[in-house]
Amino acid sequence: MRIVVDVADMKASGNGDEIVTHALGSCLGLTVWDPISKVGAMLHAMLPLSKINPDKALENPYMFVDTGVPALFQAFYKLGGKKERAVIKAAGCGAPLGDDRIFKIGERNLIVLKKLLWKNNLLLAAEDTGGTQSRTLYFDLSTGKVVVQSGGERREL
Predict the structure, then answer these.
(1) Which helix (H) or strand (E) holds 69?
(2) What is the pLDDT of residues 61-86, one digit of tens each?
(3) CATH code matching the domain that covers 2-156, chosen among 3.40.50.880, 3.30.1330.200, 3.30.470.30, 3.40.50.1000
(4) Which residue from 16, 48, 96, 145 lies 20 to 30 Å from 81 (Cα-Cα)?
(5) pLDDT tens sequence across 82-116
(6) DSSP character for 47?
(7) Are 119 and 111 a contacting pair, CB within 8 Å?
(8) What is the pTM of this model?
(9) Which sequence positions are flagged as catalytic?
């Protein structure tokens, strides 16, 4: 079954489903997969830090990288995923409107993600980040394969 992750959303499954998210420009698309239990989750986070709107973060933690990433891992662990086996991949975090010298949302999303992972002794297995192209992210939970589609091309992450 195909599960769609909307903007500011997260989905987790252990049923061999395919999870997909569209329109990753400056947003972060993050996947985590456990190759033994074959469970995984995908996050589509818009903004780096929840402190700009704590009420919104309580209402929807997936909107922000700093609250969405922990929520993603909690869902992953609840399904039986293990930290020591986690395969983590990221996409997006670009500048779809060109060089954004003022806000740098995509760049900041990636920095916040990497700090969170580092603090928790986790590393990215692969990433397709930056640039100006929007991306679609496909995640096959039966195999752990993550495919990025951008500019009419598909490539495995």
Answers:
(1) helix 65-78
(2) 999 999 999 999 999 999 999 999 99
(3) 3.30.1330.200
(4) 48
(5) 999 999 999 999 987 766 566 799 999 999 999 99
(6) B
(7) no
(8) 0.96
(9) 27
